[in-house]
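WARN  no MSA supplied for this record, continuing single-sequence
INFO  ligand: 3,4-dihydroxyphenylalanine
INFO  echoing inputs
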Amino acid sequence: MTLEELRGGVERIRREWTESLPEACDLEALEQLRVQFLGRKGRVTALLGRMKELDLAQRAEAGRLLNKLKDEVTRELEERSLALEKAAVEERLTAEGYDLTLPGVWRPVGHLHPLTQVRLEIEDIFLRLGFDVATGPEVETDYYNFEALNIPADHPARDEWDSFYVGEGQLLRTHTSPVQIRVMKERRPPVRIICPGKCYRRDNPDATHAQVFHQVELLWVDEELTMANLKWIIGEFVGAFFGPDYEMRFAADYFPFTEPSAQVHIRPRGRAATGRHLGGWLEIMGAGMVDPLVLEEVGYDPERYTGFAFGLGVERMAMLRWGIDDIRLFLQNDPRFLYQF
Ligand code: DAH
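INFO  complex generated
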């Protein structure tokens, strides 16, 4: 075979391809055509196989011609295939009488409860800071809920945590702080955890009190931790959760399980202050340095280890974020409320 003969062969195949392509009226016919031209024993392939009959000097030119042919055939095959597929779909739709202009059936899609959204976001912030998530039982013993947290039976602070007792020495936990004790008894320092969960109090329900609510507890015990570390962590949290437009302050408070104890306030500053909170300080959590008596109770040496903790209300975070003024809305499961978040 000479180069001239090959050129003639290419032209012939090209012409026959162009003539046959419009005749392939469905995908099956198109596939047959593909096999006929590009298949293992197809015409293009056969010509490629004969290239070795040419002089070495002519093979480059022959290769160029054949590749061009192959590329063109491949591309036109794909175009035709797409066109045929589209036509087939349209034909079926017309035949089956679908009216694509009719409105569809609306199916409501659920989403996470606003409290779940807030809890996950808080967890995420602290996971990024290297904390683990720990959990504990909702039915607690008097020991974990009170005694081990330095709140003996006759302690006046028990009034703050009106409890649902469910049996001898057993109650629905009034806060997530007992998880601190459970985790410290199981692990050696350093301990770095957050504990999200449900809490129960025998309060009269009103706009700011619910008998079931959620807290997130934080605990970090290590050597050389001070109040400055606590303040830094809370600052990081406030920045991440509320954004840069909030400032924070600590005010003295009292909890039997921390010494010193503080309550943390935040306040929108600058432009944000013209919004719904109008510049007032809002309490967001209780916090403090873990009382040495608590460390001793779990078998940690208070001379060597210090720690800090805080407890925040998830409902409160959600209410501040979205300007919700009644905690009871979270429990009513009214879609008109839930679909807003
Ligand atoms: N457990 C407290 C409560 O429910 C909140 C709290 C205050 C938790 C100070 C702490 C803390 O860990 O250090 O009112």
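The first strand starts at residue 132 and ends at 133.
INFO  checksum written, moving to next record
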